[in-house]
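User: Can you fold this complex?
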Amino acid sequence: MSDLTRMSAVELAGAIKNKQVSAVEVAQAHLDRISAVDERVHAFLHVDAEGALAAAARVDKGEITGPLAGVPVAVKDVIATKGVPTTAASKILEGWRPPYSATIYERLQAAGTVPLGKTNMDEFAMGSSTEYSAYGPTNNPWDLGRIPGGSGGGSAAALAAYEAPLAIGTDTGGSIRQPGAVTGTVGAKPTYGGTSRYGLIAFSSSLDTPGPCARNVEDAALLHSVIGGHDVRDSTSIPQPMPDVVAAARLGATGDLTGVKLGLVKEFAGDGSEPGVIAAFRESLEALVKLGAEVVEVSCPNFQYALPAYYLIAPSECSSNLARFDGVRYGLRVGDDGNRSLEEVMSLTRDAGFGAEVKRRIILGTYALSSGYYDAYYGQAQKVRTLITRDFEKAFEQVDVLVSPTTPFVAFPFGSRTSDPYQMYLADLFTIPTNLYGGPAISVPCGLSEGLPVGFQIMAPTMADDRMYRVGAALESAVGTFTPPAL
Amino acid sequence: MAAISREEVAHLARLSRLAVTEQELDQFAGQLDVILQSVARVGEVAADDIPPTSHSVPLTNVYRDDVPQPSLTQDEALSGAPDAFDGRFRVPRILDEEA
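Assistant: Here's the predicted assembly.
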């Protein structure tokens, strides 16, 4: 048997099913790999070796079967996992063990996947580099001096470092796709409402979308099919059946895109992408044309306002959602000396427990929701959201999917964008429109620029997640996958 | 001209129950000013007759049957509390001594 940590999820599931290898052996190989490299990568905040081996043993006993039975998975630390520490990479939740599990975690367990532990992220999923984790950044396996993207940098780095074949992320403004792009891995944001938010620690409830991360498109589609679908515990969950994303990925892998129309967003052309990113994107576009696809230029004039609208809507929702961290029901409490009032203790707890980016966004959101500013900021941003949705709907009358680079730049060195928060926000320039619209989008590795991975983004209409998997798998069949240097 | 003053940031921090330090105030005031000047671009869009979008899913009033479901036990609900007593969350003083 070849190195178990280099195999795809599909290969691992097949080998386990055919008894060529046991699920326990697969779990142990990944735990060993984590022990060997994670000191340098820091993808994990918590490794649950005992839980992983127990889950694997149940698969070996034949108690659980299914398309991903026995396959290890790394879970972003913003997902509530019963009895397993969950911090959202914040000091305010240090040591918290949730008394319940997220729906998607329960589905992972029911499918027989083997959760290895919890991955690092920007605190409360606010950031694009994991530099805002309260527990220190994750290092990009392609170059340990560079960021792995964010907020889900830990999940993406765990894949690129062969610590896990599958991972779970959450995408509010690009937190699955941008880490995928800069680590040479696949990251998919499902249609909003296509994957349950129950048990996801809320950042921006109208945007947050959990989704799959993997090293290839078919693995991502399989993971998507396991976690997706209606959930009565999330009132924004879509009751209609979701499209067959696995079949779409397999269709795309045949390499035929005859008749598929790809929309190139005119307004993204002049937006300051690095030359190497543009070159890799253009070459990939030509590869898709060779597979039969047609490229059509489309105009989405309101996309230029997506980033400003997002940085009003997301902080506004975050300022409300994070009010729950009050030092009473869970997590940290600071300054309770018997003399201080509840309000004083609450304020001291929140100042000590939240990092700078979280505080900036809470203050910004409180401002945008204040009477006197509400109409000019939050209200206006919601109207812009309508216009962006209309841009998407009009574009999808002409084309099947929209394509762009996932992020304007390759993995940047640590510290290069933290002094000016707005420079960090620009990492999400191309991913944010999709979140405001609510549709699905995927990032697929498409090439290298100066030795670092570039991601290709495919955006589809709401509830047409299958389209992005088809085009993504076709792209992968044309350009291949990308392997980082040995750690 | 600055979009937001240091005093305004201090007021917003109080409203947000964040006991920020003087040093944090200095840092945040400048950064928030840059961010606000950038996001204010949403005001350039003529959108008077455009309805707002709060949510992308066209669902309203999602109901379920009024049947009790299993939920957390009292112990489970209190399991993460920084301070609990006699089956309840214990909180710092809420009222003034004299009140």
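Chain A has a mean pLDDT of 97. The two ends of chain A are 22 Å apart (CA to CA).
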